[in-house]
Amino acid sequence: MAVHNQQEAKSILVVDDDNATRELIIETLHSGGYLNTREFNNGLEAFESFRESGCELIISDLKMPGISGMELLNKVKEYNPSIPVIIVTGYPSIGGSVTAMKKGAVDFLSKPFDPDDLLFKVNLYLKEKSILAADAVDCEDSNWKFKEKIRELSTINVIYDRIETMKGGNEEIFREIVLLALNVTGGDRCLLVLFDETEHTFYRKTYETKSGVSKEEESTLLNKLKGVFIKVISEKKALLTGSDENSDILCCTISVPLMIRNKVFALLTVTNDNPARTFGQKDLSFLQNLTARASLHLENTLLYESLFGSIMDTFESLIHSIHARDHYTERHSQNVTTLALRTARALRLSAYETESLKTASLLHDIGKIAIPDHILLKPGHLTPDEYKIIMNHSVIGENIIKSLALFEEERKIVRHHHERWDGNGYPDGLKKNNIPVLARILSVADSFDAMTSDRPYRKGLIREKAVDELLKNRGAQFDPDIVDAFVGTLDSPNKSASN
Ligand SMILES: [Fe+2]
After folding, report:
1. 170-303, superfamily in CATH?
2. pTM of the model
3. Which of 18, 63, 295, 462 is deepest in the core (most CB within 10 A)?
4. How far is the CA of 465 from the centre of ligand 1 (A)?
5. pLDDT tens track for 363-416
6. Which of 182, 241, 186 shows the shortest CA–CA distance to 207?
7. Which residues have CB atoms below 5 A from the ion given as ligand 1?
8. What's the CATH code, domain 326-498?
């Protein structure tokens, strides 16, 4: 019964100028359950009916008055290529059959035809058509899903890329995260708050709105969101709320925790002003990806900063202890750092190299901590043996900092800051460009400050004399280009003295 109902619904056009044949076809179709038939004795009327009301299948004669079966086939295929057309003719020829098939007829029947054969073909082509139609829907559906998936993956890629390339301090990173969240969800407002676990308090960090959306109501928003925040923190899970659960400005909200080692340290919350625009699971997933990646990025940054900070604190206290013993060199590290950085700027070094040079300049004499007082603080000239001991400070300094992978570049600079351009320096007697460039810069800055500082056994040179010394040793002790760059950074009286 169900099969018959389906067949009844299929409309079939029968076109033949021979009444007997047409009636036989109609009878056959009805006997097969195909009751929705329309019959025509010419092609033009058939085509008009097809255009007005459509159909599932056409059975047509070839030779008819008005337009032929072949012309009807052409018109139908132009209009809708998916309609199966079966050609029936009393004058079969191989040529005619091939032409009809080429033009899109699905089959060819010769008169007199076998009714079972006709039904068999009608069943076959209608079934094939419905499968093709379902496939087309499936295909469109999977194509859409595929495109959606690609869009989704592209958005996640954009999120990852943007987070990986985020630069600057935490303030800038937080703002970037907020703008990115607005961007990927299309929300109206985004708020990032930090959460202090000890005090159980929220601190507003960054608040942005989509362009055109007013920035007012920030404190109201924060107050309204507190309930959401508490839930997200206690469950450590993102929360998506719809418009019915909120009032006023909280039409639709997504709040996602940022966590480090399973502890919530911040919350990223996006809201929509308009109740008609709600967020979906996809928006939630975007924000979860964003916060997971951002948490990882911030964890690395914060860890690095705190590790680097505490190491530098330790080193600085070591340097202070040297300064406490040796007042004459108290400002030496600081002066050398200032001079070296000026030279780095003149030589247009990268930010990374400049940072390494800064750290190495501050630490370059850290090895002096191991030099006994009677040598380090000796007021007179040093004996050759004492000088050898002093010379150890660059290798000792390197040993102090080399255990830390973070200071790989700085380690080399500290080791080689007493090398000479002509190869007569220590500890390795490196020559010219074999000496790391940052160590060559440090060497010039270090020597200049040493020459201009007062020592117990001598007065410091005036700047002009020190510049003369540098220029005299240009290409011997020092890299000539670096001497030029260094001298170029000094004040004009020294510049004139050097010329
Ligand atoms: Fe030194």
Report:
1. GAF domain (3.30.450.40)
2. 0.45
3. 295
4. 21
5. 898 888 888 888 888 877 889 999 999 999 999 999 888 766 567 788 999 999
6. 182
7. 365
8. 1.10.3210.10
